[in-house]
């Protein structure tokens, strides 16, 4: 069976029109119709019902489309697996926002220099869904905090940077007691859907502090801007995001011990992009060291 027939069949299902699928695939409607007939002969059942300009899948057609997507994904993985490292031209990277605003750009700059012709697709999002995408093969790797559970044995993890939890305050509060400030000042939650936000929530519970909630935000840069303008204080990972100019901030260490946020790279043990992953870890480590040293 020609797998390109399956890909073209999916185009027909997604567009609902052989004419539109023809434009998408750069094949004539006649050629697509012949491919449908070949598939129907292969599977012994009708797959498409045509009415005017529309093409509607039969129940069997819908089932074939769903199965075809999995087959084409596996075929793509097999092709990448047998390609030599020099032939790898695409790298699919997931990342949470904070690294993207700090060390990822320079890391990708070095990666582009060491791997000419590489095309990098970047997907941003929450750590949980990005981890799922790596497990399912939708992404080659992802930069995320280490989850608060043990990773599956099918995945590998390399820590890139460790970010202790700190209390972010306006400079005028720099000499205050962290717990007294948390009990007194308006509080800005770091999004509790994020693992970093959950660390902060855990600290508050262990310290038996109920803060005066004002906002809950998903961007550390935005939180820094709010804190700098005196709108509140916040427990955040001590990340390397760029602080907007003009803000006078202070980071206060916390009295109670708490696990830091560990940012790292996660990928599948069987990933065909292993060489690129290794290069990325090397470049990221160097960039992070330079940022930490003020370089």
Could you give me the name of the CATH homologous superfamily of the largest domain?
A: Periplasmic binding protein-like II
Rounded to the nearest angstrom, the distance between the terminal CA atoms is 56 Å
Q: Helicity range of the residues?
A: 40-55%
Q: What is the third-level CATH name, the topology of the largest domain?
A: D-Maltodextrin-Binding Protein, domain 2
Structure classification:
alpha/beta
Number of domains as seen in the coordinates: 3
Number of β-strand runs: 12
CATH-scheme architecture of the largest domain:
3-Layer(aba) Sandwich
Low-confidence runs (pLDDT<50, min 5 residues)? none
Number of helices: 11
Q: Please, what is the average pLDDT?
A: 87
Question: For this structure, what is the CATH class of the largest domain?
Answer: Alpha Beta
Quickly list its features.
D-Maltodextrin-Binding Protein, domain 2; 23% strand; alpha/beta; 12 strands; 3 domains; three-stranded antiparallel beta sheet; Arc Repressor Mutant, subunit A
């Amino acid at each position: 069976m020609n797998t390109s027939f399956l890909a073209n069949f999916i185009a027909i299902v997604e567009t609902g029109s052989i004419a539109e699928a023809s434009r998408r695939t750069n094949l004539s409607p006649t050629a697509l119709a012949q491919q449908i007939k070949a598939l129907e002969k292969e599977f012994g059942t009708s797959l498409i019902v045509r009415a005017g300009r529309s093409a509607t899948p039969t129940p069997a057609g819908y089932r074939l489309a769903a199965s075809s997507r999995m087959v084409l994904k596996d075929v793509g993985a097999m092709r990448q697996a047998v390609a030599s490292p020099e032939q790898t031209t695409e790298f699919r990277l997931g990342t949470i926002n904070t690294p993207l605003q700090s060390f990822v750009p320079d890391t990708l700059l070095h990666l582009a220099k060491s791997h000419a012709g590489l095309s990098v697709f970047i997907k941003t999002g929450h750590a949980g869904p990005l981890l799922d995408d790596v497990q399912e093969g939708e992404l080659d790797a992802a930069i995320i905090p280490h989850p608060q559970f043990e990773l599956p044995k099918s995945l590998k993890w390399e820590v890139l940077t460790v970010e202790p939890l700190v209390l972010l305050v306006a400079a005028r509060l720099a000499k205050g007691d962290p717990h007294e400030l948390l009990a007194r000042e308006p509080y800005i939650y770091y999004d509790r859907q994020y693992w970093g936000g959950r660390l902060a929530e855990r600290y508050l519970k262990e310290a038996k502090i109920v803060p005066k909630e004002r906002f809950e935000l998903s961007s550390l840069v935005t939180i820094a801007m709010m804190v700098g303008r005196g709108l509140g204080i916040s427990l955040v990972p001590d990340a390397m995001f760029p602080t907007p100019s003009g803000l006078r901030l202070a980071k206060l260490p916390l009295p109670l011990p708490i696990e830091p946020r560990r940012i790292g790279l996660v990928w599948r043990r069987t990933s065909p992009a292993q060489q690129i992953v290794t290069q990325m870890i090397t470049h990221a480590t160097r960039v992070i060291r330079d940022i930490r040293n003020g370089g």
